Amino acid sequence: MDFVHKSVMLNECIENLAVKSDGIYVDGTVGGAGHSTEIAKRLGENGRLIAFDRDPDAIKAATERLAPYNATVVRSNFSRMREVLNEMNIEKVDGILLDLGVSSHQLDVGERGFSYHADAPLDMRMSQEGLSAADIVNTYSKDELAKILFEYGEEKFAWRIAENIISARAEKPLSTTGELAEIVKQSVPAKVRREKNPCKKTFQAVRIAVNGELDHLSRGLDEAFELLKPGGRIAVITFHSLEDRMVKQKFAALCKGCICDPRLPQCICGRTPQARLVNRKPIEASAGELEENNRSRSAKLRVLERI
To answer: In what helix (H) or strand (E) does residue 178 lie, and over which residues does it extend?
Structure first.
C-alpha cells in the first residue's frame, strides 16, 4: 500500500517557516513528505533539507518523493537531530518543522494496529521495532496500566479499564485491537458508549507509551531550539492537549525575560528573552481544510522564532 498522508495546514506551515532559498531546513516527521516537498521546492542550489522519520514505510516513500530535490532522508527519531546533524557537519539551521502524532497511513493500514476501527494485531510501533502495544497490555501491572491511561489519555475510567485488562489477560493474552477495544467499551458506562466511541483515549495512551512520544518531544524541542540560527523558526503541529501543553510551556519559557522577584528595585538575573512567538495564539485548520480532512480538526500550529 502506498504511503498516503494528508499534510495538515500545509500552506500555513510553509508561510510561517518563511523558507529562504539558500536555507537549511529540518522536517523532523517527514511522513509522506507533503510538507517536505513544499519546503524542498522553495530551495535553491545552496539550500538543503534534512528529513527525519522512524517509520520505515515513511522513509521509503519520502526517499522516492524527495529524490528530485536537494534533500537527505534519515531514519531516526527527531529527538536525535542534533547528533545526526553534527555527523553531517551542520551546526545551525534556518527552520524546523514537527508534525506530531500518528500519520494517516499508520491509521489507515489496519495491520499497523493504531486504529480501533479495524481488528488487527495489537502493535502501534511507529518504528516497527521494540516494545509493542501487546507487550504493554499483557505485562504491565494494574497500577502501571492505570497510570498510562490516566496520564497519557486523560481517561477518567482508567482504573476500571486497567482492572478489566488484567482480568481478560488472565484468561488469554490480548493480541488484537478488537479485543482491547471491546474491553474499553465494557469498562465505561452505557451513556458514554452511546455518545461517542470510548476507545480513543485508551488507544492514544497506549500508543504514546509504546513510542515514548512525550519524552522524545521534550528532548526534540530542546535540541531543535539549540540548532536554530538567530531568526530561525520552529513550527510544531500538535494533535492533543498533552503535546500542545508541552510545546506551549517550552515556547513560553524561551520567550520569558527577567525572572527576578518583582519586589526587587532592579533586575539581577540578567535574563533576556531568547525567542518570540510568531503567532500569539495557535493557528488552526481553515473551514475548507476541515471539510476535506477531518483529522485536522484537533490540530494546532505554534511557531517560534529565535532572536
So the answer is: helix 177-187
Could you identify the residue written with the cell 501491572? Answer: 141
DSSP 176: B
Residue 211 DSSP symbol: H
The residue written with cell numbers 527576578 in the block is 260
In the block, residue with C-alpha cell 520552529: 234
Q: Which three cell numbers stand for residue 83?
A: 547528533
pLDDT digits (tens, 9 = 90+) for 225-264: 999 999 999 999 999 999 999 999 999 999 998 888 888 8
Give per-residue pLDDT as tens, 91-134.
999 999 999 988 777 777 778 989 998 899 999 999 999 999 99
- Distance separating alpha carbons of residues 303 and 266, to the nearest angstrom: 31
Cβ atoms of 85 and 220 closer than 8 Å? no
Query: Do 201 and 154 meet the contact criterion of CB atoms below 8 Å apart?
Result: yes
Cα 43–Cα 46–Cα 49 angle in degrees, nearest 5: 50
Residue 276 · residue 302 · CB < 8 Å: no
CA of 145: how far to CAs of 89, 157, 160, 192, in Å? 43, 12, 10, 21
In the DSSP assignment, the letter for residue 153 is H
- Identity at 179, one-letter amino acid code: E
Whole-angstrom distance, CA of residue 88 vs CA of residue 107: 33
Q: Half-sphere exposure of residue 241, counting CA atoms within 13 Å on the CB side? A: 6
Give the whole-angstrom CA distance, residue 157 versus residue 200: 12
Strand pairing of 300-306 and 275-277?
antiparallel
Max alpha carbon distance in the chain (Å)?
68
Domains assigned to the chain: 10-99+213-306 (3.40.50.150), 114-211 (1.10.150.170)
The answer to whether 3 and 61 are in contact (CB under 8 A) is yes
pLDDT of 173-216, one tens digit each? 999 999 999 999 999 999 988 888 999 999 999 999 999 999 99
